[in-house]
Amino acid sequence: MLPLHKLKRHKSTHTVNILNSEQLKNENPPKKRRRWLKILLVILCVPSLLLLAGVGVLAWMYQSGGRSLRERGGPAPKVPVLHAEPIPGFAEGKEGAEVSAKEESVPEELLEYREEAINILLLGVDKRGKLSAEPDFSDHLAGQADAVFVISLDTASKEASVIAVPRNSMVNLEIFGTDGTPQEEYFNALCLQYGFAGGGSFGMLKTKERVSEILYGIPIHASCALGMDAIGKAADIVGGVEVELSETDIRELGWKNSPGDHVTIDSRNAYAYLHDRIVEEDGSPTIRLTRQKNFLKLLLDKLMEKPENLPGLALTLYQELSPYLVTDLNADETVYLAGELAQCRFADSAFYQLEGRNLVESNEEGKSFDNFYLDPESVRQTVMRVFYRRAEEQTG
User: Which of 54, 90, 226, 306 could cross-link with 230 by S-S, CB 3.0 to 4.6 Å?
Assistant: First the structure.
């Protein structure tokens, strides 16, 4: 047995050792513990830093894209007046058609052009597979612009409008030789201009010029030509676009459905839904345009379901669809447009379709075509409604 004084000393020493151990734990955490703490901090911080970086990049792209798009606008057009010359094919046999030969204008002090508007031309090209930006002047069948829309975003009032232009609207086209030199003008359907200019970026440019002429010189800031596969892939990315089939749709498409059926449009059936029509039926291009316009409206509605995600989604669409489209928009401008689109309102009444009349005409070979002659006064009224506003009253 240990002596009493030694026993106490041993007990005291043991107590001191315990206290030193606790102090050591508090003052010097083990290396393993510190390492896991660092890992945890990294896990928590990295997503936030990436999110902030992503938001910063998108904000920079938005500002850059807005500046470059507005530089393309050009001077503000004057208030439109009726064409001084009758439009061939329209004035003939139409009651009151002499109005198209007049030169009328609303007093300029009552209207002003919407300077803040950004106008985008959207073409649906009748071609499968990838689209090349390089024009091919040896191929006048480089694709037809089967769908022609102008989307106008008023960045001040946050109002948006869409104008559907009939693809068979009769206009003066520019034809180019195999070396790319201008050959002649040819009065024919608007849809042919894309191919007559070799397709690609040049065909898109020439189609933009024709559409601007139809709309009394309205500036078009940018254009995008989508191949049919691009439209289907876009529908896939947003999860499909649900449409309600009408009796006319079913008859035109030849689908085994009933009127009122709801069908999801995606890459499996987008080409048929947007392209097919009964060619032999008078006015079939205009009937199909109504279906295309309805699809575009529903697609825009789908994109607007989560407007806060639209800039990022637009960048995804730009990257994923780039092989199947031709555009003069860059990534920054795409983000800008998406940001503005997210703030805009698309009222049902803001979807317009240019009016006129269909005439079935034959060419020199005896082949019949369904040609559309625009009503100049109706077009003028649509242009003023969409692109102009009443000037603010001047105060003394």
Answer: 226
**Class of 50-390 per CATH?**
alpha beta
Rounded Cα distance between 164 and 98, Å, is 26
> What is the rounded CA–CA span in Å between residue 86 and residue 105?
16
395-to-108, 114, 137, 238, 289 alpha-carbon distances in Å: 17, 21, 56, 49, 45
Q: pLDDT tens digits, residue range 62-96? A: 888 788 888 887 777 877 766 545 444 444 433 33
Which tens digit of pLDDT belongs to each residue from 248-296? 999 999 999 999 999 999 999 999 999 999 888 888 898 999 999 999 9
Which residue reads 């046999």 in tokens? 93
Q: Where are the domains of the chain?
A: 50-390
Burial 33-59 (b: 16+ CB within 10 A, else e): eeeeeeeeeeeeeeeeeeeeeeeeebe
State the Cα–Cα distance between residues 49 and 57, nearest whole angstrom: 12
CA separation for the pair 355, 164 (Å, rounded): 10
The one-letter amino acid code at 242 reads E
